[in-house]
Amino acid sequence: MIVQFSKWGNSLALRIPAHAMRDIGATEGMKADLIVEDGRLVVVPIVEKRRRNLEDLLARVTEDNLHDAIFEGPEVGSEEW
Questions:
Q1: At 35, which CATH number?
Q2: Distances (CA, A) of 75 to 70, 71, 72, 80
Q3: CA distance linking residue 27 with residue 20, whole number of Å
Q4: Which band of pLDDT confidence, cut at 50, 70 and 90, is reported for residue 12?
Q5: How far is it, in rounded angstroms, from Cα 61 to Cα 4?
Q6: Per-residue pLDDT at 17 exceeds 70
Q7: Taking 90 as the threshold, does the pLDDT of residue 14 lie above it?
Q8: In which band, very low, low, confident or very high, does the pLDDT at 81 lie, cut at 50, 70 and 90?
Q9: CA distances from 72 to 52, 54, 63, 81 (A)
Q10: What is the mean pLDDT of residues 22-47?
Q11: Number of domains in the chain
Q12: Is residue 73 in some structural domain?
């Protein structure tokens, strides 16, 4: 695919078509590593693992996915139910 460099402030920019962004899993605001390799510019999206906290996880609990705790089998060690 051929794209054209355009002036953006004091820099040059490349507009990446939406289908190419989808193909590499890139989204707006996502970071990328730019690598110059053998005279080529390689763009590698950086996928950051989102760290979840308990509050976020509990907010996703609904009546539809809530289940009763099921404990089966004899107690082992000093467990008490």
A1: 2.10.260.10
A2: 13, 10, 9, 7
A3: 11
A4: very high
A5: 47
A6: yes
A7: yes
A8: low
A9: 30, 26, 23, 11
A10: 92
A11: 1
A12: no
Spatial CA neighbour of 44 closest among 54, 35, 53, 56: 35
Q: Select from 8, 57, 14, 10 the least CA-distant residue to 32.
A: 14
CA angle 31/36/41 to nearest 5° reads 70
Residue 79 lies in a domain: no
State the pTM of this model.
0.50
pLDDT of 45 above 80: yes
> Using CA atoms, how far apart are residues 41 and 60, in angstroms rounded to an integer?
41
